[in-house]
């Protein structure tokens, strides 16, 4: 039996999306019927398409099987994507095994938020998602592919790939991950060194050694941030091969899962008997599964932007109230850093996604009856992938191997998912409390107002924040500067909290999947640049952040508040290529709609 709240939220989304979803399905039906296909292309067009792939030219001329377009986010600056270097040449071999062919259709940019955090380049991060979506559309625009394999893992890359790919939703597609790097310096030890550095107790050399010890090889970072939340989400939506999310790079299991993904994709074309187009795989139920998985595992707050944006690309409308309602019904069954001490490798060893999906299905918290890549329905994803006698197989998933990391849905860490929507005279915001001690869920303290996160850090260094304080950082929304993550604030705010002060953050920016023990009211909407009330806050105003009752209030006399006007202006946006993204900033939707310029510009 499906949980009543999950059912009600799903029905709410279906009803709200009725017209837009119908228009989307009509679009992909037209595309399937009229889309230019290889047999119909002109001879010169085909010659161009085949010229770079002499080895497969005869098979492609014969049109005997699917031609797979590979859209890759490979680069070797981003550790998670460096593993993709040789994937295309291997995938071409595996496609031939399945009677298909494969070509690299195109590359998409893949920036690393970990590199750009706290610097101007970070202001391009969110809009890189739209750029990736546009690049994916260009890659698939040639009309020479009957299916696609999407190679991407990290923060904006998976959402961007899906947003672009869904406009070609008549094609079957599979997401292929690369897996997390092996465990290095534990995340809590890394965080402790960061806080010591913020206090001036260790120097840059010691900090750098700690960071290199944590981020030390190819693969995703091992904390449960946005990149690894992406992988969780692809599993509960059925867009990976089952169990593919958290298998380390370079292992036999990793290779066999990727091989199986290519073989599976080759069987899902429109000319076969198991047609599974992406636009039908990503339906309202799959989107609800993504939200439930996010809440049950304490995933990244960035997905309160990404899930709505992915959904809109498929004609589906989900809002923050849907997340809030689901959060009240979905238990937190995983503790992975920053919501616990374990990293994703320990999470995988304890049972990983097969265990999570098994537990959530057993309690009616996930839609099992969705169209998936890896099986008839989601139950295939509740089994554990292994290589036995050289062959890939899926076995029944045992009980949790470590109940400090994974617990049954009937005995969770928390009865709810730890996401809250806050509303009040400052606007609407999100807060993630799954890693925040309950006694810190309510903070009432005077405001200190900043227009740049670096100014906060300088004020901390000068000792000006040594008190109970609500740090307000405005002009960080998508229209102002591209909505960068403010992760650099985590160490100083954590230090203040450790010293016994009541501390909270209120911002129209993002805080990333690494947000943890400090209460942060983020994505505040409307943003300051659009005359949002966050821009009316003055130094010394008493601010109440209340995650218990879901309120975000400036405790200012109503008449005084109503008489205030915006007096500040945002810092200029130029340098590091940011001026080239003025169109994106000018078109960007509000955070609750996904903060996308592309979708807004397309009228979606």
From TrEMBL:
Residues 405-595 form the Dihydroxy-acid/6-phosphogluconate dehydratase C-terminal domain. GO terms for biological process: D-gluconate metabolic process; Entner-Doudoroff pathway through 6-phosphogluconate. Pfam families: ILV_EDD_C, ILVD_EDD_N. Gene3D superfamilies: IlvD/EDD C-terminal domain-like. GO terms for cellular component: cytosol. Residues 67-379 form the Dihydroxy-acid/6-phosphogluconate dehydratase N-terminal domain. It comes from the Bacteria. GO terms for molecular function: 4 iron, 4 sulfur cluster binding; metal ion binding; phosphogluconate dehydratase activity. Pathway: Carbohydrate metabolism; Entner-Doudoroff pathway. Keywords: 4Fe-4S, Carbohydrate metabolism, Gluconate utilization, Iron, Iron-sulfur, Lyase, Metal-binding. The keyword Iron applies. Its cofactor is [4Fe-4S] cluster. The keyword Signal does not apply. Binds 1 [4Fe-4S] cluster. It catalyses: 6-phospho-D-gluconate = 2-dehydro-3-deoxy-6-phospho-D-gluconate + H2O. Its EC number is 4.2.1.12. [4Fe-4S] cluster binds at residues 154, 221. Belongs to the IlvD/Edd family. HAMAP family: Edd. NCBIfam families: edd. Catalyzes the dehydration of 6-phospho-D-gluconate to 2-dehydro-3-deoxy-6-phospho-D-gluconate. This is Phosphogluconate dehydratase. The lineage of its organism: Bacteria, Pseudomonadati, Pseudomonadota, Alphaproteobacteria, Sphingomonadales.
């Amino acid at each position: 039996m499906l949980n009543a709240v999950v059912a009600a939220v799903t029905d709410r989304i279906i009803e709200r999306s009725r017209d837009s979803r119908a228009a989307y399905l009509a679009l992909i039906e037209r595309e399937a019927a009229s889309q230019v296909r290889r047999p119909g292309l002109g001879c010169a067009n085909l010659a161009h398409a085949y010229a770079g792939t002499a080895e497969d030219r005869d098979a492609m001329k014969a049109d005997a099987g699917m031609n797979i377009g590979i859209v890759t986010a490979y680069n070797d600056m981003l550790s998670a994507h460096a593993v993709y270097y040789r994937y295309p040449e291997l995938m071409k071999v595996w496609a031939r095994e399945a009677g298909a062919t494969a070509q690299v259709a195109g590359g998409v940019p893949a920036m690393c938020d970990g590199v750009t955090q706290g610097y101007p380049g970070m202001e391009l991060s969110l809009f890189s998602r739209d750029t990736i979506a546009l690049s994916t559309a260009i890659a698939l625009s040639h009309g020479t592919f009957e299916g696609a394999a999407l190679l991407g893992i990290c923060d904006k890359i998976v959402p961007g790939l899906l947003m672009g790919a869904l406009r070609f939703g008549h094609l079957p597609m599979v997401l292929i991950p690369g897996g997390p790097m092996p465990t290095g310096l534990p995340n809590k030890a890394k965080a402790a060194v960061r806080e010591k550095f913020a206090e001036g107790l260790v120097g840059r050399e010691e900090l750098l050694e700690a960071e290199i010890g944590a981020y030390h090889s190819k693969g995703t970072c091992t904390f449960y941030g946005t990149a690894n939340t992406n992988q969780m989400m692809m599993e509960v939506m059925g867009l990976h091969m089952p169990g593919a999310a958290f298998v380390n790079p370079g292992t036999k299991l990793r290779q066999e899962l990727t091989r199986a993904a290519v073989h599976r994709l080759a069987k899902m074309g429109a000319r076969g008997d198991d047609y599974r187009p992406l636009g039908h795989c990503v339906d309202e139920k799959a989107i609800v599964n993504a939200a439930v998985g996010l809440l049950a595992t304490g995933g990244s707050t960035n997905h309160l932007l990404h899930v709505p944006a992915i959904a809109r690309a498929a004609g589906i409308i989900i809002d923050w109230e849907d997340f809030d309602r689901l959060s009240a019904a979905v238990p937190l069954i995983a503790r992975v850093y920053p919501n616990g001490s374990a990293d994703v490798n320990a999470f995988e060893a304890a049972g990983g996604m097969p265990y999570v999906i098994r537990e959530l299905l057993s309690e009616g918290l996930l839609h099992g009856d969705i169209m998936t890549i890896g099986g008839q329905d989601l139950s295939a994803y509740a089994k554990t992938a292994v290589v036995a006698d050289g062959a890939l197989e899926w076995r029944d998933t045992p009980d949790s191997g470590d109940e400090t990391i994974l617990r049954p849905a009937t005995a969770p860490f928390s009865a709810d998912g730890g996401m809250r929507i806050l509303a009040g005279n400052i606007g609407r915001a999100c807060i993630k409390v799954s890693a925040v001690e309950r006694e810190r869920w309510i903070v009432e303290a005077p405001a200190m107002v900043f227009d740049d996160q670096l100014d906060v850090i300088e004020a901390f260094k000068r000792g000006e924040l040594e008190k109970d304080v609500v740090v307000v950082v405005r002009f960080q929304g998508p229209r102002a500067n591209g909505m960068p993550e403010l992760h650099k604030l985590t160490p100083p705010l954590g230090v203040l909290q450790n010293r016994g002060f009541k501390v909270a953050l209120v911002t129209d920016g993002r805080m990333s999947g690494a947000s943890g023990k400090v209460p942060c009211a983020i994505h505040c909407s409307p943003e300051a640049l659009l005359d949002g009330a966050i821009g009316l806050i003055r130094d010394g105003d008493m601010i109440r952040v209340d995650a218990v009752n879901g309120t975000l209030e400036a405790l200012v006399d109503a008449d005084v508040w109503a008489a205030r006007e915006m007096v500040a202006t945002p810092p200029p946006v130029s340098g590091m290529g940011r001026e080239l993204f003025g169109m994106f900033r000018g078109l960007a939707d509000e955070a609750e709609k996904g903060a996308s310029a592309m979708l807004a510009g397309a009228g979606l």
